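Sequence only, no structure available. Ideas?
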Amino acid sequence: MNRSPRGRVVACVSGAVLAIAVTGAAAQAQGRHAVLDLWNSGKPAFGVFVPNENPQRFERGQPPPKGIYTKDGGAKLAANPMLDFVFLNLEGSYDIEAVKAIAAGLRSGSGPRKSLLVRIPTIERDGVELTRARVKEVLAAGADGVTLPHIRSVDEAKTAIGFFQEAKANVWSPANPNGTIIAMLMVEDPGAVAVAGQIADLKGFSVLACGIGSLTQALGGDRAAGEAGTQKVLAESKRAKLPNMLTASPQDVQQRVKEGFLGLLGQGPAADAMITAGRQAAGR
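Reply:
I predicted one. C-alpha cells follow.
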C-alpha cells in the first residue's frame, strides 16, 4: 500500500481487493497485528494469497475446484518470517470454516502475528443483508480484516462502511490510529475509479484498493488503461495521505515500492522472490 499514513489505506490490488473489520469483543481479543504498526510507521508490508490446498487441477471450461484451507496450512504461513499478512480470497466461494481454520493456524505460531485479510463476495451479487451478516461472521471467526470487492459507487461505499459500524468494529483509520481492524473497499470498475477521490474522502474505513486485474478486464483487456486507473487511485490516496496496496511480482515490486505502495501482495511460487526484492527495495 502506498503512503506513509497512520490510518486508512487506499490500495490497488490485482483482481479484487479487500475490506476489514472486527466486532468489538473480537477486536479486543485479537489486539495488534503486523500490518498496522508497519503502516503507522510508513513502512511497506508484504503478504501472499492463502494457497488453496485442493489438489484438484483447474480445467478450462469447468468451474474452479472448491478451495480447501486448513489449520495446518495457516500454521505454515505463520512460520514464514517473510510474511506480514495473508489474504484469504473467498470472493467466488464463501466458506466461514476456511476463515476459522486459517485464523487458528496463524495464531498457533510464535513471534509477531500475521494479519489475516478475508475477501468475501460482492454486495452486487449477494445483496446488502447477507454481506452485512458475513462481515460480522468473518470478524467473529478471527479475521483481522474483511475486503469488499467491486464497490460500484460512493453510496455503496457508505453502505459498506456502515457494516463495520454496525459490527462495532474498532476500525483502523487516520482518525483512529490505535484501531485494530482493517476495513478494505475495492474499486474495480471504470465508474467506481472515476469517483475514487470521493470514496477516499469518506470516514470510517481503512483501505481503498484498485483491483487492477478486474479493472483491466472491464476495459476490454487494455492494460495501459488499467494501469492508468491504478495510478489514479494511487494519486487520490497520496492526496488524502493514505496507504495503497497492489499485487506485485519479482519483476515489478521494486518499481511499486518506489512509487509508494505500502502493501504488496504476491501469489504462488514467485511470492518469496517478490518479497525478498521488495524488502531490499524498502530497506527492510
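Strands lie at 9-10, 45-49, 85-89, 115-119, 145-148, 182-187, 207-210, 245-247, 263-266.
Hope that gets you unstuck.
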